[in-house]
Specification:
- GO terms for molecular function: lyase activity; pyridoxal phosphate binding; transaminase activity.
- InterPro entries: Aminotransferase_I/II_large, NHTrfase_class1_PyrdxlP-BS, PyrdxlP-dep_Trfase, PyrdxlP-dep_Trfase_major, PyrdxlP-dep_Trfase_small.
- Keywords: Aminotransferase, Lyase, Pyridoxal phosphate, Transferase.
- With about 375 residues, the protein is α/β, with parallel strands linked by helices.
- It has 2 domains: about 15-35 and about 270-365, Aspartate Aminotransferase, domain 1, CATH 3.90.1150.10; about 40-265, Aspartate Aminotransferase, domain 2 (3-Layer(aba) Sandwich).
- About 40% of the residues lie in helices and about 15% in strands.
- The chain is built from 13 helices and 13 strands.
- The chain has helices spanning about 15-20, 40-50, 65-75, 85-95, 110-120, 140-145, 165-180, 195-200, 235-245, 255-265, 265-290, 315-325, 350-370, and strands at about 30, 80-85, 100-105, 120-125, 150-155, 185, 210-215, 230-235, 295, 305-310, 325-330, 330, 340-345.
- It has a 7-stranded mixed sheet, with helices on both faces. The chain has a 4-stranded antiparallel sheet with strand order 9-10-13-12, covered by helices on one side.
- The longest helix is centred in the C-terminal third of the chain and has 23 residues, at about 265-290.
- The radius of gyration is 21 Å and the shape is globular.
- The two termini are about 35 Å apart.
- The structure holds pyridoxal-5'-phosphate.
């Protein structure tokens, strides 16, 4: 039997509904990191008009879809593999690279470690330091890399710290990895939310390095986690051949294929999304700086990590306080290196963000005035 004390993933609205007796329609998920604009009007119309695509198999090679992604991401369509969300690609890459010892920058998304252990490998964490606001120090990381490690995993921007690695540092890391025979997997699920994302993305590096694969998807920025469309970019043609040998056919359904061909060129939706997230991010950073008893780390993605400095309040208290108002944040106590002083939330509509900020204000202000 679930209790409110259990931990919840950002997509666990059904579990919350059951544990707290709040209808899922009345919950705003600040924990799933999904663009609050929802499905673009263009996509809604097009998908409805193309419902008949489900009566045929998708193109086995996904040629037109890969062309659309190539134009959007700035790479050769032959360097792209599409998958059933980036989750399928994380899993395939790990099965193919079959790492014995992987290094993961942490705290981060838990799927990497899970997949590595399912495949029989060991994960070592390189801990991002709180004293550096969880920003990676490239030279320090490179000192920890050696020939015993066969895979390095970097989430860029990183979930849950919302920090990014710039391309210059990535280039240094790739050189160091090349010398040590380490393959690098970069998860760019949140990259489009970064203000200067062309400075952050590693896509241009795939033309020069064959020890890198980049993973991305439409779940977060295009607000379509239910469609299950992800893609990998690599200049390593042997890896692409291996993946295509191993991968089941048609794992991207015809509706996702049709959606993908449209959404990457939906410039209106792309700029509206950026405008909303960029302005909300600035407002939220400012508002949080006015609340006593917390520290917010500078965010580059569409979510922010917050540390509770006030004694006597835990991340579970913040979760409980907010969920009773239908606002679901992420209690980060289960992330490695974070404890029950950390919580994360993503940026939703301006109105909902004000509600959540008010809620955090109330909780900490009441605590401030306690005798
Ligand atoms: C960093 C990161 N990568 C990948 C995923 C999964 O993405 P997808 O829906 O494309 O499988 C998530 C989902 O929360 C995530 O946070």
């Amino acid at each position: 039997m679930l209790t409110p004390a259990d931990h919840f993933h950002g997509s666990d609205l059904e579990t919350i509904e059951y544990a707290y007796g709040i209808k899922k329609e009345n919950i705003t998920s600040f924990s799933a990191n999904v663009n609050p604009l929802g499905v673009s009007p263009k996509l809604r119309q097009t998908l409805a008009a193309h419902i008949d695509v489900i009566t045929t198999y998708p193109d086995r090679e996904y040629t037109a879809l890969r062309r659309a992604i190539g134009t959007y991401a700035g790479c050769d369509p032959d360097h792209i593999i599409v998958g059933n969300g980036s989750t399928e690609l994380i899993s395939l890459m790990i099965q193919i690279r079959h790492p014995k010892k992987a290094m993961i920058l942490g705290p981060t998304y838990s799927e990497y470690e899970r997949e590595i252990s399912l495949d029989g490998g060991i994960s070592l964490y390189y801990p991002l330091k709180e004293s550096n606001d969880f920003q990676m120090q490239a030279d320090d990381l490179m000192n920890k890399l050696n020939e015993q490690i066969d895979l390095l995993i970097l989430c860029n921007p990183n979930n849950p710290t919302s920090t990014s690695i710039c391309r210059n540092d990535m280039r240094k890391i790739l050189d160091c990895c090349k010398q040590n025979n380490i393959f690098v997997m970069v998860d760019e699920t949140y990259v489009e939310f970064v203000p200067d994302h062309l400075e952050i993305t590693s896509v241009p590096l795939t033309d020069y390095y064959n020890n890198i694969v980049i993973l991305r998807g439409i779940s977060k920025f295009f607000a379509a986690p239910g469609l299950r469309l992800g893609y990998a970019i690599t200049g390593n043609l042997d890896l692409i051949k291996e993946v295509n040998k191993k991968k089941n056919p048609w794992t991207i359904n015809s509706l996702a294929e049709a959606a993908g061909k449209l959404m990457f060129s939906d410039t209106e939706y792309i700029s509206a999304s950026k405008k909303l997230i960029f302005s909300e991010r600035d407002n939220i950073v400012h508002e949080l700086s006015l609340i006593n008893g917390i520290k917010a780390y500078p965010p580059t993605a569409n979510f922010i990590l917050v540390r509770i400095l006030k004694n006597g309040i835990t991340s579970k208290d913040v979760f409980e306080y907010a969920i009773r108002r239908g606002l679901m944040i992420r209690d980060c106590s289960t992330f490695p290196f974070l404890g029950n002083q950390y919580f994360r939330f993503c940026f939703m509509s301006a109105v909902k963000n004000r509600e959540l900020l008010m809620c955090i204000h109330e909780l900490f202000d009441d605590a401030n005035t306690k005798p």
